[in-house]
Design a protein that fits this description.
- There is one protein chain.
- Helix 2 packs antiparallel against helix 3 and helix 3 runs antiparallel to helix 4.
- This protein has 167 residues and is mainly α.
- It contains 6 helices and no strands.
Amino acid sequence: SGPLAVDYLGHLMRLFVVVVGFVFALVASSSARRELASELLATLMLLVAGLMLVARANDLVFLFVWLELVSIHTDVLLYVGRNDRATSEAAIKYFFLSILSSGLLLYGMTMLYGVSGTTTIAGAEDSIQTALLVTSSLVQLAPVALILMLAGLGFKITAVPFHFYAP
């Protein structure tokens, strides 16, 4: 019932994130330039910590904060060690699209909070189901909130309709 869920799927996702993070750390430590290796590995470890917390999030506020922790460090990883103009421009474009996706996600989350009155994920589901039985007029905003949240997450993970900027 708190901001972090303790369940089997969360444990599996955390284990998966740690294993993938360890593999990326091994690859990054061998291929990184000597003067940027510590920044690269520290940013990668903060990214892994953020992903581990995203896997356990049970509250919309904490989910957004941990997703931003992941997003900011992804932007930094894209920019660290790049000296040419094209990669710097691509990193800046990715940063601006990351801001757009964060705005869409946050706007959807605030609409969901307005409809349900709670920030917990299970509480929002229960409130919307109860409001459907009462036929509240606010329930009509729930699909819009879901679409905005899916669009924000789609931009963050470069899902198919939002993948045009990925290369």
